[in-house]
Amino acid sequence: MNFRKLILNSSVVIMTSLLAFVPSNSQAKDLNNVKVEQKSSENIQSKKYWINDDTDLFKSENEHSKIIEVLDQGDTVKVEKIGEIFAKVSVTVDSKNFVGFIYKSYLSEKEVKPDPNKFEGWVNVETKVFDSKEKEAKELGLIDKDSEIKGHIDEDNLRITYFGRTAYIKAKNTTKESPKDRDARLAKERKIQAQKLAEKRKKEQEEKEKQAQSAPKNVSGRTITMRSTAYTSDPSENGGYSTTAMGTAIRYGVAAVDPNVIPLGTRLYIEGYGYARAEDTGGAIKGNKIDLVFGSKAQSNRWGRRTVRVTILN
């Protein structure tokens, strides 16, 4: 009798233990929900998503955190987690793998193709950033001149990503010419302009000398035969000075003379040279010697030393 009672009690214990492992209807429902949620999470992580507009990839769930990469419209990403505002994604850009956070609003389950109006270039002047392209748009900040920028042409504006969000700047303030190329172009233009100016001045000087060397009409005055030499305005040829004995600039048309022969300030006409004015002196300029200023060393060398007729005009 006691043995049968023991067996009966043992059976009750075993049945009770087995029933403990059988879930109730509500427990079974909860378990099913867990499975669905896990499956949904797995679908999100394995599903291919597209980026529907250019956006920044942040290091953490904060728009002020470090930007580790810029994602372009049409890029594909793998989603690891979707939160209330941000989504954690992994992406491969130029054979490099990145993991970071983007605003989840930039994710698209449908394929997104790159925008044909995509623009890549630089800001050519410091420009304001606005939250929309409307006239009453709110100013968000400034972008410095020569900053590299990417965006999409939208009428007269460029739609860009500014700290992870869509913003706008004026398209006229952008260029596809890099600062390096621009500086090289401007330097080349300045060089060409300088060369043209130098050539113009050279021609004007040559024309002036040509006219000066032409025999003038009705030149009258006392004529002296003198031994002439030539020099330029280079201070190294003038004892370090850049002005004449009269304090005027050393230039074409200036003659160095012996004041005992030709007083300073005298207007002259030199055969083969043209009109000149006695404004300078020199240690070696004594007696019937005259030293004439030319515009270049080449012209001075061509003149060399020669005997000329000098007409004193006043």
From TrEMBL:
Q: Which GO terms describe its biological process?
A: peptidoglycan turnover
**One Pfam family for this entry, by name?**
3D
Is the Signal keyword given for this protein? Answer: yes
Task: List all Basic and acidic residues biased stretches.
Answer: 195-211
One example of the protein's molecular function in GO is: hydrolase activity, hydrolyzing O-glycosyl compounds
The terms describing its cellular component in GO are: outer membrane
Q: Which UniProt keywords apply?
A: Signal
Q: Which domain of life is it from?
A: Bacteria
On whether ATP-binding is a keyword of this UniProt record, the answer is no
3D domain location is 255-314
Q: Where is the composition biased (Polar residues)?
A: 214-223
Residues of the signal peptide: 1-28
Looking up PANTHER family in the UniProt record yields: CELL WALL-BINDING PROTEIN YOCH, RESUSCITATION-PROMOTING FACTOR RPFB
Q: What is this protein called?
A: 3D domain-containing protein
Native organism? Finegoldia magna (strain ATCC 29328 / DSM 20472 / WAL 2508)
Tell me the organism's taxonomic lineage: Bacteria, Bacillati, Bacillota, Tissierellia, Tissierellales
